[in-house]
Write a structure and sequence with these properties.
626 residues, mainly beta, 22-stranded antiparallel beta barrel, 5-stranded mixed sheet, 5 helices
Length: 626
């Protein structure tokens, strides 16, 4: 009704084609207007310039090059690319595409997202929020990644290179409409392969001086994406160690549609979003042969899933005075999922299937008080669950502006996540009595950043240092039994430092040094946890050689990581560095970019048996017009 009211009021108004869309500085960490540099969380914004420099990379590859983020499998291996952030499991990171959640509760990986299924070719911006962001985005216990697709651009791009990498992207936009599509494939059908396709379309219109509002922005957008992957199964030992040489296949399709309206009045701002997402997947795994870690191995399995999420969210924001600003909202969400699988035990075929529905109603609010050098912000989210239980996510943050441009801040936040459908309802390992998983985040930062992009900084050094401490409890883990069963028993303690230092040397040359040092422990079992490197850092520099030419270089270090596979048992993966070089040259309406990945030729083992070996040269070309 509210969306209909907005549209009716807008259509009754005079249509000004030159009216600009509502300009509000906003990042996904909070519902209150703020910049990435002034937020309490450590936020990285990857804009069009940075993403164009990595044209041809998948979302998983782009994120894995950011300090503090770890992705265990790349597209060329055909594997499932899961993201690890601040010591937590991949299921504790929320992934959004154009404000629509991508996490799948039917996944056996606990609602994690396969980032290899997302290509960067049609992406305009990526926001990475490290730390708790669950007041606005439920389940974001460790952080979130928000991906925005391209809208205001007319261009065509194509690329090709080693490891059978090739792809293309096209985008068209007008004052009111936008279209984009992308295709990407990489790898070998016999060793590891990943293919993705996507298409986006939307309409948007801004109306000024309507009967009810000063300004209204109404948008409707849709997205289709599918993927086809072939690779060695998790825990199999990959190309080097897998005993069974048949590849696992995973095919998936995703559809989403959203209508969004934002309205301004002299006293408040309103936003309403209606969204629906459907997801289908088919997975056929040959299983994993017995080995050092497991005398029985894993059986062959075929799985088909169907999932749908419908949601409606209304947000209200108001500036009460120069000191006070508030926001409040409500979300109604309905989820429906079905899983059908057939497990080959050798002597019989065992079916395992279930259906699950869930309704969640949430209300949330945030308030910010600013006076002189101090800023205090607090928020809370309350969720009412189907079974009558409730979850509350509180957050409190404080900042102080110091002399010489310095600023410090501290945050404490508590959050919780509902168990996945798989954990609750799977007939063999699920338990409908599982509790919610919980986390408490504490962090303190100090720095002088006014912009997270060093190219827009002043000539002075900019820096930010963050200390964090995260405690995750009641995490869902497998109890080997017999019979095997998922239980709430795991705990993770994560403490670390994150830093970002930027310097704009001249108008044509800037650099950035970003890193994370982290200690992660299992206080109960005392076992090492996978894919949690103690140290990561990235040094990047960009030099505009002339008005038409630009040179970029990025050196990324990943410390040693623990991993495990059935044929090899437990192992520590060696630390390594990777140097990527890129040369861009403008030729009339075309941008030509030559990229050399892993210029030092270092051998890098992303997971046991899955190597990224040698250099890769690839060429990309973009044609664009205003």
């Amino acid at each position: 009704m509210f969306l209909l009211l907005l549209a009716t009021a807008a259509c009754a108004a005079s249509n000004d084609p030159d009216t600009k869309r509502l300009e509000r500085v906003q990042v996904s960490a909070t519902a209150l207007p703020t910049t990435a540099a002034s937020a309490n969380q450590h936020i990285t914004i990857l804009g069009r310039e940075q993403l164009d420099a990595m044209l041809g990379a998948s979302v998983a590859e782009v994120l894995s090059r950011q300090a503090g983020l770890s992705v265990d499998r790349s597209p060329r291996s055909g594997g499932y690319g899961a993201l690890y952030l601040r010591g937590a499991d991949p299921s504790h990171v929320v992934i959004l595409v154009d404000h629509v959640r991508q996490n799948d509760p039917l996944s056996s990986r606990g609602s994690a997202v396969d980032l290899n299924s997302l290509s960067c070719d049609d992406v305009e911006r990526i926001e990475i929020v490290r730390g708790n962001a669950s007041v606005v985005n439920a389940d974001a216990m460790a952080g979130l990644v928000h991906i925005f697709t391209r809208r205001q651009q007319n261009r065509f791009a194509a690329y090709a290179g080693g490891e059978r990498l090739r792809g293309a992207q096209a985008a068209f936009s007008s004052d009111q409409f936008w279209l984009s599509s992308g295709y990407r494939e990489e790898g070998d059908q016999n060793q590891g392969f990943y293919e993705t396709r996507s298409a986006n379309a939307g309409w948007g219109q801004t109306f000024a001086d309507t009967r009810l509002f000063d300004q209204v922005r109404v948008e409707a957008s849709g997205r289709f994406a599918d993927s086809d992957a072939r690779g060695f199964p998790d825990d199999s030992g990959g190309e080097r160690f897998a005993v069974l040489r048949e590849l696992e296949s995973r095919d998936g399709q995703n559809h989403q549609f959203a209508m969004r309206a934002e309205a301004e009045t002299p006293w408040a701002n309103w936003a309403l979003q209606l969204a629906t997402e459907t997801r289908r997947s088919d997975e056929t795994s040959p299983g994993v042969a017995p080995g050092v870690r497991d005398d029985f191995g894993l059986p062959a399995i075929q799985t088909h899933t169907n999932y749908r999420r419908d949601e409606m969210q209304l947000t209200y924001g108001r500036t009460l005075s120069e000191a006070w600003s508030v926001t409040a909202g409500a979300l109604a969400q309905r989820e429906r999922g079905q899983l059908d699988s057939l497990i080959d035990l050798g002597f019989m075929l065992l079916p395992a299937e279930f259906e699950r529905n869930r309704h969640t109603a949430s209300v949330f609010g945030e308030a910010r008080w600013q006076a002189a050098a101090w800023t205090i912000q607090g928020g809370v989210r309350h969720e009412q669950l189907d079974d009558g239980d409730a979850i509350t996510h509180p957050m409190l943050a404080v900042q102080q502006q110091l002399e010489r441009g310095l600023r410090w801040g501290a945050t404490i936040a508590s959050s919780a996540k509902q168990p996945s459908f798989y954990a609750l309802a799977h007939p063999l390992v699920g338990d409908p009595g599982l509790k919610v998983e919980r986390a408490v985040h504490r962090e303190v930062f100090i720095g002088n950043e006014v912009d997270t992009d060093p190219s827009r900084q002043s000539d002075a050094w900019s820096w930010r240092l963050t200390w964090f401490s995260a405690r995750y409890r009641d995490l869902i883990d497998i109890d080997s039994g017999p019979p095997p069963r998922l239980v709430n028993r795991a705990r993770i303690e994560s403490d670390g430092l994150e830093w970002r230092v930027g310097k704009r040397w001249t108008d044509r040359w800037h650099s950035q040094f970003e890193g994370a040092w982290m200690q992660v422990e299992d206080p109960i079992g005392g076992v090492a946890l996978r894919q949690r490197p103690e140290l990561q850092w990235t040094i990047s520099t960009q030099w505009q050689v002339s008005d038409r030419a630009e040179l970029s270089a990025t050196l990324h270090h990943v410390g040693k990581r623990f991993d495990s596979a059935i044929p090899t048992g437990d192992r520590w993966l060696s630390a390594g560095e990777r140097l990527d070089l890129s040369w861009r040259h403008r030729l009339g309406p075309a941008d030509v970019r030559l990229t050399l990945d892993n210029a030092l030729g270092e051998r890098f083992e992303e997971a046991i048996g899955n190597d990224i070996d040698g250099r890769r040269l690839w060429l990309s070309v973009q044609w664009g017009r205003p």
